[in-house]
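Help wanted!
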Amino acid sequence: MTSSAVDPQQLEQVRRRVMLALFVALAVALHTVEVLLPNPIPWFRIGLANILALTALFSYGIQALWIVSISRILIGSMLLGSLFSPGFLLSLGGGLAANILMSIGYKLWQPKIGPVGVSILGALGHVTGQLLIAWLVVIRHPSIWMLLPFFLLFALISGIVNGLAADYLLGSLYKHPVFSGLKKIKTDKSQPSV
Amino acid sequence: MKAIGWLKLLTPFDRKLLLVVTILVALSFLLLLRQTSGARVVVSADDKIIFVAPLDHDQLVELPGPLGITVLQIKDGAAQVISSPCVRKVCIGMGEARHSGDLLACVPNQLVIRIEGDCEEDGEYDFISR
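Answered by r_m:
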């Protein structure tokens, strides 16, 4: 096969690019499917696309998390035709806040924290960011913050669900030979940095 | 037992984080309950809210309408219109509003004054049987 002659570092880089592209594509698909699902509570979403962002974070690091989630928001909104609408702003604000919290959580407690922990942080950040944008842009009325406890409760539940799904996905992905070189690189990098 | 089986998948750190976050969410609910227990006076004119104040803070408020200034008195947990530029003074005759959902209106001066919140404490009647 051709891959036997390739420099292993270059191979790893190509694998990383291909996997990230796949993660973005899957995340966009989940994002779109979720909008089509009937929604009993307005504004509330499970955030299934975050499963892929979490998977990217735990396999390729913080940069990959940002690539997957920002591309997902941009491409997903473009597909749904909501790019630059108020709904897109809510989505972007939530995504940015979620990413910031997830990055901080991952950076601070990296070997100890699992996908569920990061997912909970992300979900809470997402609703808080969304509400902040909603308050700034859509409804400039302080009583909107009275919604926050309910949002946080739902976010907690969906965060746990997404985290468990990402945990399961990571578990089965690591069995695949494509990720065999990855674990080595990941452990090599994490030891000096911590 | 099955319902908590998923907890075993979490790392010990995740479990601690989950506990802390759950407590924070519960606290936010407590904060919300405490905040809503104080009733508010909300005045709207022409479908726009022009004035909001807590009902337990005594004050006199001058509310501008198309006819002139309507004076609203908030005292001892009740709101009452004490002077109005309108002709028939129906709003003054409506007396006091003190419970959640109570309404005072001055139609000629286009003002609607209502009490919001406080529903947990005097919930003997629902909206229909009021």
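OP: Thanks! One thing I noticed: Confidence is low (pLDDT under 50) at residues 119-125 of chain B.
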